[in-house]
Amino acid sequence: MESLERQIEQAADLVATSARIIIFTGAGVSTESGIPDFRGPDGIWSKYDPEDFTIDRFLSDSKVRKLHWELLVGGGLTMTRAQPNPAHYAIAELEKMGKLYGVVTQNVDGLHQKAGVSDNMVFQLHGDLSHARCLSCSTRYPMEEIIEWMKEDIDEPECGECKGMLKPDAVFFGEQLPYEVLMESESRSRSCDLCIVLGSSLVVYPAALIPRYAQQGGAKLVIINMGPTEMDRMADIRIEAKAGEVTPQIIDRARSKMGVK
Ligand code: APR
Question: Ligand 1 atom 8: the closest Cα is on which residue?
Fold first, then answer.
């Protein structure tokens, strides 16, 4: 296998010579911000049953809803307090360099926007946890507000308008992904010239189609991940490293190759 140094150099060459870069991120880009991933060694699915995270279970089982809200209040706090890490800031740097064609993310933590990437350049395939919505009257509430309610020892928050059931804005297993977000992500991925995957096992569809669309459109593919992914064989460059460590190095090298201060 190529040395890490050589791989960083090759990836920097691709960034320096590309104009429309799609960054595809998964939970692995946020672990260095303190947010656990799903399938890594200590991931969420090693502690909880994914079956409890389907929309059907959420709608039909009040125990499952209570589990979700407990996690959101606990985990949600981790998420709202989490700060971007060097990988998120390196991606924001790409936008400043005029090379970012979009961040297509599976994450619901909002850290790309917190790091400074423009809202209209972040495509959240799995929604986000910034709000929850009433399933009866569609009233939306900021998650912070609901977390405050939960401190009053509420185990399942209900809509303040109609007492309806509230559901976080993240996409649950069994739910459709937001159509416009998916269509725009597909279209940009098919017309990008470089796709960089950061911290994803690439096992969940339709999100995992994004790097495939990029390659079908003729783009180069770089995968930076700790541990194997489903698309390692397809990658032009496959880097086994922490996203927060190598992404800033790649972007810095690309900047100096472009003579950008
Ligand atoms: N740098 C690089 N890779 C990392 C890092 C890191 N700092 N930390 C973890 N990883 C790797 C893990 O080893 C794992 O291979 O990132 C990958 C994350 O994969 P998953 O946990 O499967 O997360 P993701 O690919 O985002 O999952 C997709 O599955 O459960 C659903 O909806 C959920 O959006 C999620 C989707």
Answer: 28
